[in-house]
Specification:
Radius of gyration: 14 Å
Distance between the termini: 15 Å
CATH superfamily: Histidine kinase-like ATPase, C-terminal domain
Largest sheet: 5 strands, antiparallel
Shape: globular
CATH topology: Heat Shock Protein 90
Number of domains: 1
Order of helices and strands: EHHEEHEEH
Helix content: 25-40%
Low-confidence stretches: none
Structural class: alpha+beta
Number of helices: 4
Length: 130
């Protein structure tokens, strides 16, 4: 019923987005819920960017589908947890955490032995109706 796929992000944000779209295409709800797919891909992009910019490390992306929730987890080597910032209108950054908070059904973060993981959960409407 479920699956998990893991991808080291040393190739960058674009590769992470493309890899994510390929994995999502295997899910039965992906074709009928393009907005959810786009939200997942944008979240992947934001979390990987945050890892590269703020943690100054490569990131490790894990997608897990458990039949109810698609979990997007990005691990980096910096134990500092992200904090929501208030970006000014002209700022070119500072909105990543707010974007993830807005798009995901749930999200969280935790310190780990070697860094931190930020995870977002997406519940497609198709599975929520079952």
């Amino acid at each position: 019923m479920g699956w998990a796929h893991s991808f080291p992000m040393s190739e960058g944000v674009r590769s992470g987005r493309e890899w994510t779209r390929e994995r999502l295409a295997s899910l039965p709800w992906a074709a009928t819920e393009p907005d959810t797919v786009d939200a997942v891909v944008l979240t992947v992009s934001e979390l990987i960017t945050n890892a590269h910019v703020h943690a100054h490390s490569d990131a490790h992306l894990v997608l897990t589908w458990d039949g109810d929730c698609l979990h997007v987890s990005v691990h980096d080597e910096d134990p500092t947890l992200p904090r929501p910032r208030r970006a000014e209108p002209g700022d070119v950054g500072g909105r990543g955490v707010a974007i993830v908070q807005e798009l995901a059904d749930e999200w969280g973060m935790r310190c780990q032995r070697h860094g931190k993981s930020v995870t977002a959960c997406f519940r497609p409407a198709e599975t929520a109706a079952e």
